[in-house]
């Protein structure tokens, strides 16, 4: 929680209400109009409403203060009196960013990859979660193992299907042409799985190696030059 948002003077100086919502037309003619707000008030209101909805009970307040979300000298009574009005805010009172609930880091990363904002530091991450390539490899191993097990089960079922003689099946519509089509489809599917497995293994080896080479190149490029002694 930024300390400035807990300060009333900050709200009156930098986060003023629009002139038409603070006074009537007659009052506006008698009182000089306030200066233009320096920041978007709706963003601050949405941020405070999020805290108001998250910290509802005393135990929530204790956990937030223990995790250094709040200053240590702020007590529960002061917080309750301060935050009460923010709980009644509607979606029209806050910025559009706060209309959609929680924005997870994974979704922000995909937003950066799709829209490529100019202020983003990288094209792949909104915020780089890990600097070690081992963490990314561990992250993709689980889905890859699940996919490998599922495809292995499919291939085993196809192998059993093709190994059973068609004479004793008792199906009227099973003939030589249909079995030939099934064998052809199984062969194409097996070849595709082999190529896909090879491609996945290539990525698992190439991507960490590329990241390591990039990090080494960045390190040598930004290596501090030794100072020349006079």
Q: What would you note in describing this structure?
A:
Helices cover 59% and strands 0% of the residues. The chain has 230 residues and is mainly alpha-helical. The chain folds into two domains: 100 residues, no CATH class; 89 residues. It is elongated and about 85 Å long. It starts with 7 loop residues before the first helix and ends in a 9-residue tail after the last helix.
Q: Encode the helix/strand succession as letters.
A: HHHHHHHHH
Biggest sheet character: none
Strand residue percentage = under 5%
Overall form? elongated
Return the domain count.
2
Short description:
The protein has 230 residues and is an all-alpha fold. Helices cover 59% and strands 0% of the residues.
């Amino acid at each position: 929680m930024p300390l400035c948002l807990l300060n009333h003077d900050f709200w009156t100086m930098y986060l003023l209400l629009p002139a038409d919502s603070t006074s009537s037309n007659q009052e506006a003619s008698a009182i000089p109009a306030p200066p233009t707000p320096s920041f978007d008030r709706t963003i601050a209101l949405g941020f405070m409403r999020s805290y108001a909805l998250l910290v509802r009970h005393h135990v929530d307040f204790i956990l937030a203060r223990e995790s250094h979300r709040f200053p240590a000298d702020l007590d529960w009574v002061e917080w309750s009196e301060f935050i009460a009005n923010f709980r009644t805010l509607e979606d029209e009172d806050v910025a559009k960013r706060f209309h959609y609930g929680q924005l997870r880091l994974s979704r922000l990363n995909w937003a950066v990859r799709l829209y490529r904002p100019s202020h983003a530091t990288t094209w792949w991450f909104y915020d780089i979660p890990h600097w070690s390539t081992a963490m990314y490899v561990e992250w993709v191993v689980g889905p890859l193992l699940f996919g490998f097990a599922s495809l292995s089960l499919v291939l085993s079922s196809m192998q059993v299907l093709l190994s059973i003689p068609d004479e004793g099946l008792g199906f009227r519509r099973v003939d030589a042409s249909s079995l030939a089509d099934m064998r052809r489809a199984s062969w194409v599917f097996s070849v595709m799985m082999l190529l896909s497995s090879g491609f996945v293994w290539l990525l698992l080896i190439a991507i960490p190696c590329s990241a390591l080479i990039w990090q080494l190149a960045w390190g040598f490029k930004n290596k501090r030059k030794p100072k020349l002694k006079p």
